[in-house]
Amino acid sequence: MGFMDKLKNxxxxxxxxxxxxxxxxxxxxxxxxxxSGKINDLIARYRKVDEDFFEELEExxxxxxxxVMTVMDLIDELKMEVKRQNIKDTKEVKNVISEKLVEIYxxxxxxxxxxxxxxxxxxxxxxxxxxxxxxxxxxxGKLAHQLKKQGKNVVLAAGDTFRxxxxxxxxxxxxxxxxxxxxxxxxxxxxAVIFDGIKAAKSREADVLICDTxxxxxxxxxxxxxxxxxxxxIEREIPDAPHEVxxxxxxxxxxxxxxxxxxxxxxxDVTGIVLTKLDGTAKGGIVLAIRHELNVPVKYVxxxxxxxxxxxxxxxxxxxxxxADMLDETEDE
Length: 333
Ligand SMILES: Nc1nc2c(ncn2[C@@H]2O[C@H](COP(=O)(O)OP(=O)(O)OP(=O)(O)O)[C@@H](O)[C@H]2O)c(=O)[nH]1
Fold this sequence. Notes:
The protein has two domains: 3-111 and 320-327, SRP54, nucleotide-binding domain (Four Helix Bundle (Hemerythrin (Met), subunit A), Up-down Bundle); 124-316, 3-Layer(aba) Sandwich (Rossmann fold). The longest helix has 18 residues, at 220-237. It is built from 13 helices and eight strands. The relative contact order is 0.18. By secondary structure, it is of the alpha/beta class. Keywords: Cell membrane, Cytoplasm, GTP-binding, Hydrolase, Membrane, Nucleotide-binding, Receptor.
């Protein structure tokens, strides 16, 4: 059985996996249309797998924002695999491409890297960082909703005291998700808000505290100072916290997201990425570039604006979302 059939089996196994794959399929429609279209076109024009075919494939991948370094590695892997399997016909190459996309995502790591780090029966603290407008507040709301649905008691801390309206916006999401929001007035010290958040979460015996922060990227020194102060406060209260530092990036900003990730990684230890607005771009390959070039796993992806449009990232579901049309060409989309 080819890799694409295996993927299809995996995501049509039961209601739960089907629901996941439907979310990915819907959210990645733009990427899929562009990507599948280009790959199919390539396969129609080149019947034989040769150097020219690989060169054009390279361009298709780069235009999907996969990232130059990642594409180079991917093409090398593909060439080796094609040789090993003695593949001559370009039609057979689809399977190899989809398989290698998953493999290049995981690298040497096991396939559990997307799981969020959570304490059992103890308070877990998640620090959320990222520049303004990337979908930080929205993602915190979605995440709170998701964790609450899993039966967790969630508290939010409105640590973005800098941007006008940020506190109120978080409160709106807190209400939607049905979780409490700890806040101070605008302009106050974010570290003090987070401190109160921890106190409140502890006294309410909460399972998770999600902390919003201000995303001032204009001045890296300020950003570093603020984030390290917030982290110090958290560590003082709970020695092994924060358990996750999630950086929110906007997929529609393409390679700019990569440079933001580099800056934040220098300012703090980012443990995972929340990649928003994947539904709004045709260049979903940015997921692979982030993972491969920064060596930080993508833990969640935003696939729409609604409260349940945040999905735990799953590289198999992602590749399935990219290739779904090619798996079943007769399927009515
Ligand atoms: N289509 C789509 N839109 C999203 C997604 N995530 C967030 N958005 C939208 O992006 C816009 C910005 O989101 P916010 O949450 O306000 O951005 P923010 O990062 O919190 O902004 P700051 O509070 O300034 O940091 C909103 O209109 C959201 O609805 C997503 O996954 N898909």
